[in-house]
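Recap from last week: sequence in, structure out.
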Amino acid sequence: MTVQVIVLNGASSSGKSGIVRCLQHVLADPWPAFGVDSFIAALPARMRASNGGVAFAADGAVQVGPDFMALQTAWMAGVAAMARAGAGIIVDDVFLGGSSTQRRWRQALDGLDVLWVGVRCDAAVAAGRELARGDRVPGMAALQAPVVHDGVRYDLEVDTTHTEALVCARAIAARAG
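Predicted structure tokens:
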């Protein structure tokens, strides 16, 4: 199998972004990365904190509406189109819907060789990273940790609680071939 897309799923502050940077360093070819954070940042400001878009509650909960879902589906199709055009793609996502989010990605990536990677991290460690980052609503990591992996099937899982991003990236790259 020649992997065309590597999808990383994990809760906020689980270490996905660090793994992505290391993956881009260790993979022989250039692999652009696309993350849900960049997608959200690209949305019009009016879609943040709106019923139709995406809203971040004070306790760290994230709610997404129909407008967000429609644009996210288009974004997923665009990522898939790049892979179909020959680019190796890394996706950094948070499956807020667990298996239903993976199902949406599977539909978009149908026909492509995908490596599904679960990124886990102890909730207390992720919460500490969340505070250190300063760009997340406190509580986000703890709320997301139990739901993002619910019913999701992976080819490989890594745990960043005690394992450095580079070590995780090397394991992923070895599996990607």
